[in-house]
Write a structure and sequence with these properties.
434 Repressor (Amino-terminal Domain); mainly alpha; homodimer; 64% helix; DNA-binding; globular; 4 helices
Chain lengths: 73, 73
Amino acid sequence: MTASEKKFLKSVGSNIAKLRREKGLSQLDVCAEIKMEKPNLSSIENGRQNVTSLTLLKIAKAINVDVKEFFEF
Amino acid sequence: MTASEKKFLKSVGSNIAKLRREKGLSQLDVCAEIKMEKPNLSSIENGRQNVTSLTLLKIAKAINVDVKEFFEF
DNA sequence: CAAAGGGTTATGATATATAATAACTATTAT
DNA sequence: ATAATAGTTATTATATATCATAACCCTTTG
C-alpha cells in the first residue's frame, strides 16, 4: 500500500466519522443498525481498512448520506 | 447480497464503463495502466464484484476522474 | 477464410476484508 | 470509586476480493 493510498483511506474514514458525528450518531448507533461490530467501524473510520463498496453503502444508509459524500475531498 | 445491493454494484460498474468510454479508453488500456487483468475489470464493470475503495481509486486515476463520480446516480 | 481488437465467462490460488471477541483508554455521570 | 458511554487496539476465523489463466463471443479488417 502506497503513501497516497493510505492518505486516501484516511480521508474516506474521516469523512465517514465527520458525517456520522454531524448526524449525532455514535459508532455504536451505526453498528447496531448495520450489524457491524464497533472495532470494525473504528478501523474503517481510522483508515486502516480498504473498505468495500457494499460496506460503504450500508454505512451511508445508516447515517443517511450518499456514498459519494465519503469521497468529497 | 440483496437485490438493492446488486443494483448498486451494477450502477457503480456501469458508471465506470461509461466514464471509461467517454475518455476513449478500452478495458485493456485501463488494465495495462493499473496492472489488472481484463476479466477482472470486466467483472467490476458488470457489477459482479464488490469492489474495494483502493481498486476504485486505481481505476479513477487511470481514467482521470474522481472516485465520487462512480457513485453519482 | 484467418487474425486482431474489445469484451465476457468460468475457474483456481492467494491475499485480505469482514465478523467476532476481549481488553484497553478516556471521559462523563452516579 | 465505580459504572456507563464512546472509541481504540489486538487477534483469530471465515468469507470473499483480487490476481491470474484459459477459453469463449462478436465485430472488423486483411
